[in-house]
Amino acid sequence: MKWETALWMVACLLLASLPRGQLDTTCHAFVGETVVLPCTTTPPGELALSKSMLYWQIGTKQLVHFYQNGQDSLKGQDEKFHNRTSLFLDQMKYGNFSLKISSVQLEDDAEYSCIYRQTESHQTKKSTIKLNVSAAPRMEEPPSPSEQNQIPSGSPVDVPSLAVLPLSLLLLLVPLGLWHL
Question: What pLDDT is stored for residue 110 in this prediction?
Answer without folding.
Answer: 96
